[in-house]
Amino acid sequence: MEPWSTDVRPPLGGRDGPVHHHGRSLVLRRPWRSVPSALLCTALLVPTLAACGSENDAADSSTSSESSSESADSADGAAGGEATGESIEGVTFTGDVGDSLTAEWSAAVEAPSETETYTLVEGDGDAIDDGDTVNAYLYLGDGTAQSDLYSDYDQGAAQAVPVDPSSGEVLYSLMSGATYGSRVAAVTTADILFGGSADGNALGLDGDAPVVVVADLGSAQEASPTPSSDQVEDADPSTQPTVVEEGGDPVGLDFSGLDEPALDTPVQRVILSEGDGAELSADSTVTVNYLGSVYDADAPFDESYSRGEPLESPLSGLIQGWAIGLDGVKVGSRVLLQIPPAYGYGAAGSGSAIPGNATLWFLIDVVDAQ
User: Fold this and answer.
1) 31-220 architecture in CATH?
2) Is the pLDDT at 9 greater than 50, yes or no?
3) Buried b / exposed e across 337-369, counting CB within 10 Å, b at 16+?
4) What H or E segment, with its residue span, contains residue 134?
5) Torsion over CA of 5, 309, 293 and 220, rounded to 10 degrees?
6) Looking at 42-51, 208-217, 257-266, 269-278, which range is the least confident one?
7) In CATH terms, are 31-220 and 233-369 the same topology?
8) pLDDT band for position 198 (50/70/90)?
9) How do the domains of the chain map onto residue ranges?
10) Is the per-residue pLDDT at 341 higher than 50?
């Protein structure tokens, strides 16, 4: 996976705002345990919606109680309560849950006064409980333009969405009370979707714009094994891959002769060269060049060296493994980190390049810190 690309959901981004590649917004983000505070790109739909709403928003979620119209005849029951069918009239969805989703528009969808939720396909799995994490494919449609805004199916991977108010009012109401294997939908407005105000949203929607949200609720995400320690361990360099360079720049990692580590291994660190600058702390904002790889990969899933654009981000905005591994490292150092899945992408992984429960390796050159 290329950590900043739109076809994966990588390890950076947190409550402190967006991370930047010198003017370019990035996609490398924390997995869903932490809620990013800004929309960096529409591929990060879930973090976006959750971050814009407060943790109490779900308590205010409401649905209407009128009968469904012809277009919603397949909605046998509402995931978050009953709803009128009028606001979903004009669009139908085809494709098997977990396989594909295509929106077929026949008319504009009107903006509702309150979010309306529907069960389009009722799954035969277990009931979804609060506290679960659901592997879900999400879709957004513009009810006025009758067009697609975003689809996880286009990205090639589901998102791991916690069944918690922090996921945002709309998604929480859709998942609550539903069953695994269901396709649920909501008609809402951009203001409601973005937690009360759609001002400045990256989708370019007016606050009263009607938005159709569909969630295909797949399997429950299993938790990754808990590392035996939440502290970094300084590793023997012989236990770690070697850096492959071309023209003086890192281009990959060589795992020859190395076995894949156990999933509960704590964060491992090798300081390849130590700088003489200030030590990093949990509240540091760092400027780094980096290269990321999974075990025995032919090529990194992302790197900044060839772009000539270092990453600048608060450490608190990186995946937990970065924050653990870089704590106390001096500016000017080159560090190799081995990060277990629990402190990376977890059991869900991210796209095709980072499978579920993948251990990650990052070569990091610490350029500066504030």
Assistant:
1) Roll (3.10)
2) no
3) bbbbbbbbbbbbbbbebbbbbbbbbbbbbbbeb
4) strand 133-142
5) -40
6) 42-51
7) yes
8) confident
9) 31-220, 233-369
10) yes
217 secondary structure, DSSP code: E
The distance from CA 135 to its chain's CA centroid, rounded to whole angstroms, is: 11
Residue with tokens 């709403």: 53
**3.40.190.10, 3.90.180.10, 3.10.50.40, 3.90.550.10: which CATH number matches 233-369?**
3.10.50.40
pLDDT digits 0-9 by tens, 261-320: 999 999 999 999 999 999 999 899 999 999 999 999 999 999 999 999 999 999 888 889
- For the chain, the residue count is 370
Report whether 182 contacts 88 (CB < 8 A): no
Percent of residues, the chain, with pLDDT higher than 90: 61
pLDDT at 49: 56
pTM, full prediction: 0.58
Which are the contacts of 229, defined by CB distance < 8 A and separation ≥ 6?
266
The residue type found at 179 is: T
Q: With 70 as the cut, is the pLDDT of residue 30 above it?
A: no
Q: What angle do CA 175, 139, 162 make, to 5 degrees?
A: 35
Continuous H helices in 183-319: 190-193
- Whether the per-residue pLDDT at 222 is higher than 70: the answer is yes
Tell me which range, 25-34, 42-51, 68-77, 230-239, is most confidently predicted by mean pLDDT.
230-239
Cβ atoms 360, 345 nearer than 8 A: yes
62 vs 321: CA distance, rounded Å: 38
Amino acid identity at 347: A
Sort residue 95 into left (φ over 0), alpha (ψ -120 to 50) or beta: left
Radius of gyration of the chain (CA): 22
Burial of 113 (0-12, 13-18, 19+ CB in 10 A): exposed
- Does an H or E element contain 286, and which? strand 285-294
**CA proximity to 145, closest of 190, 94, 101, 186:** 190
What single letter denotes the amino acid at residue 367? Answer: V
